[in-house]
Structure formats: structure tokens, C-alpha cells
Amino acid sequence: MERTFVAIKPDAVKRGLIGRIIKRFENRGYKIVGMKMLHPTLEMARKHYAEHLGKPFYERLIRYITSGPIIAMVLQGENTVKGARQLMGSTQPNDAEVGTLRADFAQTMEFNVVHGSDSVESAQREIDIYFKPEEICDDWKTMLELVMESEKKQS
Ligand code: IDP
Ligand code: MG
After folding, report:
1. pLDDT tens per residue, range 117-154
2. What would the mean pLDDT of 6-16 be, rounded to a whole number?
3. How far apart are CA 77 and CA 143, in angstroms?
4. Could you give all domains of the chain from N- to C-terminal order, each with its CATH number?
5. 109 Cβ closer than 6 Å to some ligand 1 atom
6. Distance in Å, CA 8 to ligand 1 centroid
7. What pTM was estimated for this model as a whole?
8. Which atom of ligand 1 is nearest to the CA of 65?
9. Atom of ligand 1 at shortest distance to CA of 9?
């Protein structure tokens, strides 16, 4: 089982897309083990996007991600890092496959509605920025986990 960090960015929250975005991840069957609304602080944003420090879009990116509340989520399942990014689509919405979140809901790279970790290591680092360990709720089973368990017992 793998965990990834996904955020619904401030533009999507303001546009009323929260439900439609969460639905795509739920449809895939990922288990939501962490979820909250928060307004990222400058410190959180700078930690999150440290890899982009010095790039031409860096300051605008920090302004964007701190411009309002986000929905921060931790998703758990099989290959969630890769799978969540597949559902999100390419960073540049015009290159994203139709049916992905960025193709369906965004026009520009600057306001591309969602974030998803790009590796298991980034996921752990990002989860630690936005969540305390006690905010992770994994002491329950999704319907998919129950189905898979019952199949295993029968075989
Ligand atoms: P990702 O979100 O698909 O992982 P990254 O390259 O990690 O893409 O960039 C982080 C975020 O920075 C992007 O989602 C986008 O909001 C913003 N960004 C990346 N490149 C550009 C750019 O060239 N112009 C403006 N914003 C950009
Ligand atoms: Mg990235």
C-alpha cells in the first residue's frame, strides 16, 4: 500500500469544484486517510515548493497556493502516487488527456486546480508538512478493501 499527498488548490476551492474533484479519486477506490481544509501559510508553501525556488514562476506559485484555503488529502491504495497523477493529468492543461482533472477544469499551468506528489519520498515529505500523525485516520476499511479481503479468504 502506498500513500500520496493531494491538494485541491485555491482556484478550485473558489470555483466550487471540491466535490467534483474528490469524486474522481473516490471513484478509483482510493482510501482517504487524511482530509482537511486549511489556508497554507507562507512557511508551508515555501517548504512544499522548495524544489522550485529560483524558477521564474516561483513567487507567483507561492502567491497562488497561499491565496485561499486548499483541501489537503492523503490517499492510500495501490500505486497511488502514479495513479493520482494520472487522474490529474499533465501540468500544462492543454497537454493533459481529456477526462483528467486538469484537462477538464483548467486552462493554464498557473491555475491548474490540483497538486499530487511526484514520488513516494515527496509524498512523505509533503504529508509531514500538512498533517500531524494523529490526523491520519486509517483504522477503518473501505468497501473495496472488504471485497478484496473476502475474495482472498474464499480462494
Ligand atoms: P506538478 O504540479 O504537475 O507536479 P511542477 O513542475 O511540480 O508540476 O510545478 C508545480 C506547480 O507550479 C504546477 O502545478 C503549477 O501550478 C506551477 N507551475 C509549474 N511550471 C510553471 C510555469 O512554467 N509557469 C507557471 N506556473 C508553473
Ligand atoms: Mg510537482
Report:
1. 999 999 999 999 999 999 999 999 999 999 999 999 98
2. 98
3. 13
4. 2-154 (3.30.70.141)
5. yes
6. 14
7. 0.97
8. 16
9. 16
Q: What is the pLDDT of residues 17-76, one digit of tens each?
A: 999 999 999 999 999 999 999 999 999 999 999 999 999 999 999 999 999 999 999 999
User: Residue for cell digits 479519486?
Assistant: 25
SS3 assignment for the chain: CEEEEEEECHHHHHCCCHHHHHHHHHHHCCEEEEEEEECCCHHHHHHHCHHHCCCCCHHHHHHHHCCCCEEEEEEEECCHHHHHHHHHCCCCHHHCCECEHHHHHCCECCECCEEECCCHHHHHHHHHHHCCHHHCCCCCCCHHHHHHHHHHHHC
